[in-house]
Amino acid sequence: MILVTGANGALGRLVADELASRDEAVDVVLGTRSPRSTAERRVDFDDPASLDFTGVDTLLLISAGYGEDDTVIARHGAAISAAEKAGVRHLVYTSLSGDGDHLTYALAHRWTERRLRRGPLAWTILRNGLYAEFLADIAAAGPDGTIAAPLGEGRLAAVARADLAAVAARVTAEPELHAGQVYELVGEHALGGAELAAAIGGSYEPGSLGATREAVIAAGQALPYQVPMLLSTYSAVAGGFLDGSGIENNALRGLLGREPRSALDAYRAAVRSHVK
Ligand SMILES: NC(=O)c1ccc[n+]([C@@H]2O[C@H](COP(=O)([O-])OP(=O)(O)OC[C@H]3O[C@@H](n4cnc5c(N)ncnc54)[C@H](OP(=O)(O)O)[C@@H]3O)[C@@H](O)[C@H]2O)c1
To answer: Which pLDDT value is given to residue 274?
Structure first.
């Protein structure tokens, strides 16, 4: 049996759809903090009582990365320990691409990877690049159509979230073929601010990191830990660290078995859905 955590998150829902549409039937349980049907099981990394993985052969651990490092590390550590205790055979973890080490949120991902390497379970690590849809959040245009995100001349090798879900489903359905593998999964065409703006009929006038930090704090909607998370993302893109050139073996196309979706199309669609 496969159990997918975070099944009601955006990635988890897509993975569940992918698993359901496979030709050969797979036995899947959807783990979520808020079950909505009998097909779903309550799994909350913050609640040890909900972490019973008895009968699970393969666990797809979708990272629960919104939090301070100690919170995220405690969540992932609890989930892995529970999997070990229950005799889960293989754990697939959604991590962060290897070029993301300058991002503040890389630490909890690398901690989790190390925890798996040092533990007894068979594992596969999916080092996901940043989502094209995430770009629609962090590089949205203002009311006048201007994208002011401080990406500088940097570019992001963004990936359509649906492609990462397709890879996660494939690996999770046949885990023995992928044991001990660390897969880098980034976009093949890196997107810059000017290209994003052209795609939505706007203009690109990047701000400075300092002005952006002040604006984010002044808007009052970000929790304290989220400010450095966001700023480190801008800084890493602007510094040229996330354009895909630092990734030696991009496994995306091979594991998809087809051409990756257009990240620009995924960005455009996400911007449109935000506007609705
Ligand atoms: N590559 C990227 O660009 C990128 C961008 C943002 C985030 N991420 C990371 O990738 C993960 C999946 O992305 P996503 O798009 O699906 O994000 P999302 O839509 O925000 O979903 C995250 C899901 O994580 C689960 N979760 C949160 N706290 C949890 C907890 N205490 N215990 C168990 N599950 C918990 C929840 O699932 P339920 O609602 O089902 O409980 C939540 O819906 C994120 O959680 C984050 O770590 C990656």
So the answer is: 80
Q: Hey, which of 5, 8, 11 would you mutate to test ligand 1's pocket, going by the most ligand atoms within 8 Å of its Cβ?
A: 11
46 lines ligand 1 (CB under 6 A): yes
Which residues lie closer than 8 Å to 224 by C-beta, 6 or more apart?
A: none
How do the domains of the chain map onto residue ranges? 2-275
75-95 tens-digit pLDDT: 999 999 999 999 999 999 999
Closest CA to 246 of 95, 96, 100, 93: 100
Per CATH, the number for 2-275 is: 3.40.50.720
Contact 261, 163 (CB under 8 A): yes
DSSP string, 151-219: -TT-EE--B-HHHHHHHHHHHHHSGGGGTT-EEEE--SS-EEHHHHHHHTT-EE----HHHHHHHHHHH
The residues near 87 (Cβ < 8 Å, ≥ 6 apart) are 54
Q: Is the pTM of this model over 0.85?
A: yes
- Contact in structure between 67 and 41 (CB atoms under 8 Å): no
